[in-house]
Design brief:
heterodimer; A: mainly alpha; 10 helices; B: alpha/beta; Rossmann fold; six-stranded mixed beta sheet; four-stranded antiparallel beta sheet; 11 helices; 10 strands; globular
């Protein structure tokens, strides 16, 4: 009986938490009209979450592309289909690796930065000071970071995929001798608009999920050093797990 | 807001009220622990009112109630005729434009310098041109003696300087009520003297109302026109500083004279000392 009660209690807590996150999301969405009038607030956050994540995204994109080049070449060579390496790499990067790996990198770089920054603002009374100054922290702090993350994510994914394809080409064409024309022409013939749309949809959904988690965790952080640390860790863990779950769900719908 | 709104007293009635803030039979609990049990007090207009009391009596909580950051379990908190807990978010934010608060640590925004911290409420709430904002900010910084520090980052300021900048920021929108939360804590005597002088100057030169939450009896004796001592969730004593010094209540006497023994025990409630030493539990 006590186990049933505990389960019910956990379920109630889960529903309460989901409800709180949804209300928080709705409050942020309600601020969008005001943010449109002040685009500078969002542009600053696109820089903070997007531009400052560029280096890590580009380095990882390059090396993941190069690894794909090596692995695909090895696999395809067994069937004598090395020329199809461009198709496999492009579809893999567009539909899966690009959005998923970028989301994981985004959660680790930008998500933690956002969560810890907001958590520290909470711990040092900066958010309370804003409230007393009649400035809504949801509008001034949370919503711009949320929107900035949503806009930055698809851009980062596009850059990741472009650099990744360059890495694949570097290994497959320059190093392993796959014929260049065949590499590019097969890729162009096989990759359709639907595949690009799949990638865009995934990157957008992951952008919403990772940004929401980061902003919410920061906002609800316990205002102590330990609390901020915990919020930062939770941001990475929840974002990563959520990204992979959402990826499965989206893939199942899209295929 | 319409004149028929019950939370709003007509202007004529407001003007006749000598109190800017009135706390009426407020009860407030956190996690089952009662912080206030029928608190009643009034903050007179244009005066400096001290809220004192031993640590943990809810002084800061009271400030958060007045500013509408938290709501009481029951009771009324009336600011110039408006019942704060019943206000909607938009109305509460309008009301807060008439308040300023100095936080214990200054609570300066760490992503902008001193000038931009003071300019922040002006940029958020007005469409003033930059030249006018610059003028206002420099005037406020001059008033707190930190015009020369306009370009410094918050991390470069001492505790006293940070509080003076926060005071300039709180003054930027010319509020009617200024709340000081523990303004003297951790300051050296020079900084403390500066803050005391500034609180008096701001209050009397600008005709605003001030609430100073503190347990620094000496500083408050110089500063406050009216004082309240809160203990046990209620007002234990109220009046001028002289009245409180001569108060018969044991807890007031203990607080005002800094006595170790009295109703506020030195030891936090604990099990028997000898038994606990012999047992294995904490």
């Amino acid at each position: 009986m006590s186990q049933v009660a505990e389960l019910a209690s956990n379920l109630r807590e889960f529903v309460r938490m989901v409800g709180a996150v949804v209300l928080f999301l709705l409050r942020m969405l309600g601020q969008i009209p005001r943010l449109i009038a002040r685009p500078r607030l969002v542009v600053e956050q696109i820089y903070n979450t997007g531009a400052l994540s560029l280096v890590i995204v580009m380095i990882c994109g390059m090396f993941i592309g190069m690894v794909i080049g090596l692995q695909f070449y090895d696999i395809l060579a067994r069937f004598g289909s090395e020329d199809a390496i461009g198709v496999g790499a492009a579809l893999g990067l567009l539909k899966e690796l690009g959005p998923v790996v970028t989301a994981l990198l985004f959660a680790g770089r930008a998500g933690t930065a956002v969560a810890s920054e907001i958590g520290l603002m909470r711990a040092t009374d900066q958010l309370s000071a804003m409230e007393i100054m009649a400035v809504d922290p949801i509008m001034r702090v949370a919503a711009p970071r949320f929107l900035g993350g949503i806009i930055a994510m698809p851009l980062l994914v596009a850059i990741f995929i472009a650099i990744g394809l360059f890495g694949v080409q570097l290994v497959a064409v320059q190093q392993l001798g796959v014929e260049s024309n065949s590499f590019w022409s097969q890729m162009r013939a096989a990759v359709g608009v639907d595949d690009v749309v799949d990638g865009i949809v995934k990157s957008f959904v992951f952008g919403v999920a990772c940004s929401l988690v980061a902003v919410h965790e920061g906002f609800t952080a316990i205002p102590t050093a330990e609390g901020v640390g915990r919020a930062t860790t939770r941001t990475v863990v929840i974002s990563a797990v959520l990204t992979l779950i959402l990826d499965y769900m989206l893939t199942a719908v899209m295929l | 807001m319409s004149a028929s709104d019950p939370s709003v007293t007509p202007v004529a009635a407001r003007a006749s009220t000598d109190n800017l803030v009135e706390i009426q039979d407020v009860h407030y609990s956190v996690n089952g622990r009662e912080i206030f049990s029928g608190l009643n007090l009034a903050i007179p207009r244009g005066r400096i009112t001290a809220i004192m009391g031993p640590s943990g009596t809810g002084k800061t909580t009271l400030m958060r109630l007045i500013t509408g950051q938290i709501r009481p379990s029951s009771g009324r908190i009336v600011f110039d005729g408006q019942d704060v807990p019943t206000l909607k978010r938009a109305d509460l934010y309008k009301l807060r434009l008439r308040m300023g608060m100095l936080f214990q640590n200054g609570a300066l925004l760490t992503d902008r310098n001193v000038f931009e911290n003071v300019a922040f409420p002006l940029r958020e709430h007005t469409k003033l041109p930059n030249s006018l904002i610059r003028h206002i900010v420099l005037t406020k910084l001059q008033a707190v003696g930190l015009r020369g520090a306009a370009g410094l980052e918050p991390a470069e300021l001492s505790g006293g300087m940070a509080r003076r900048v926060a005071l300039a920021r709180a003054m930027a929108t010319d509020p009617e009520l200024l709340i000081y939360d523990e303004p003297f804590t951790g300051l050296d005597p020079i900084s403390m003297g500066m803050i005391v002088r500034l609180v008096r100057q701001m209050n009397y030169a600008l005709g605003i109302t001030s609430i100073v939450v503190s347990h620094d009896v000496e500083e408050l004796s110089i500063l406050a026109d009216m004082s309240y001592i809160i203990a046990g969730g209620k007002v234990a004593a109220a009046g001028s500083f002289v009245d409180l010094k001569d108060h018969q209540s044991e807890i007031v006497n203990q607080f005002m004279n800094g006595l170790a023994d009295g109703p506020v025990a030195f030891h936090y409630p604990a099990p028997d000392y000898f038994e606990q030493l012999l047992s294995r539990t904490v």
